[in-house]
């Protein structure tokens, strides 16, 4: 079963993606394909379905980079990061089967990864502006404290 979904949020900085991935015990890898069911079954029409968000079913499985857990089995599904016209990367991934592991590690709709990425980018900006920055997990929330 193929349940490929796409996220609206895109990521602009590869460096920040790599840092966010490392904080979640994951990695960004250069690959032209990501692991998924491998065949579109026309069995997923949720509002998050990739084809509803402008991703052609012919492009399922293709990408420019991959986000994946460091600890994984060879055929475990991965998040494809597809380069957009503006140079940003859009996540596309299969949430069925071993794709459920992606939800566990990166959160529903990649919420943990998105939050970690935003924190990394914010932290980098604040440091550049001369702030001392600390981050702490409070439950599922990543909090930033900045002092001058």
Structure description:
It is a single chain. This protein has 148 residues and is an alpha+beta fold. It is 24% helix and 26% strand. The chain has 3 helices and 7 strands. The protein has helices at residues 14-23, 99-106, 111-128, and strands at 4-6, 26-30, 65-69, 79-83, 89-94, 132-138, 141-147. It has a 5-stranded antiparallel β-sheet with strand order 1-5-4-3-2. The protein has a two-stranded antiparallel ribbon with strand order 6-7. Helix 1 packs across helix 3 (111-128). The radius of gyration is 16 Å and the shape is elongated.
Backbone CA Rg: 16 Å
- Please identify the structural class as seen in this structure: alpha+beta
Helix content: 10-25%
Strand order of the largest sheet: 1-5-4-3-2
Number of structural domains: 1
Query: How would you sum up the major sheet?
Result: 5 strands, antiparallel
- The low-confidence parts are none
Question: What secondary-structure arrangement, pairings included, does this model have?
Answer:
Blueprint: E1 4-6, H1 14-23, E2 26-30, E3 65-69, E4 79-83, E5 89-94, H2 99-106, H3 111-128, E6 132-138, E7 141-147
Antiparallel strand pairs: 1-5, 2-3, 3-4, 4-5, 6-7
Helix pairs in contact: 1-3
Features:
3 helices, 7 strands, two-stranded antiparallel sheet, alpha+beta, 148 residues, elongated, five-stranded antiparallel beta sheet
């Amino acid at each position: 079963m193929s349940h490929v979904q796409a996220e609206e949020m895109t990521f602009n900085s590869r460096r920040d993606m790599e840092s966010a991935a490392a904080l979640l015990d994951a990695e960004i890898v250069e690959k032209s394909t990501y692991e998924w069911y491998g065949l579109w079954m026309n069995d997923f029409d949720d509002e998050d379905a990739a084809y509803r968000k402008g991703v052609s079913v012919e492009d399922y499985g293709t990408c420019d980079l991959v986000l994946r857990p460091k600890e994984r089995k060879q055929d475990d599904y991965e998040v494809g990061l597809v380069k957009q016209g503006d140079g940003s990367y859009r996540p596309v991934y299969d949430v069925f089967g071993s794709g459920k592991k992606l939800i566990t590690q990166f959160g529903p709709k990649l919420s943990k990864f998105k939050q970690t990425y935003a924190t990394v980018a914010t932290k980098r900006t604040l440091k550049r502006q001369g702030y001392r920055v600390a981050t702490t997990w409070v439950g599922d929330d990543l909090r930033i404290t900045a002092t001058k």
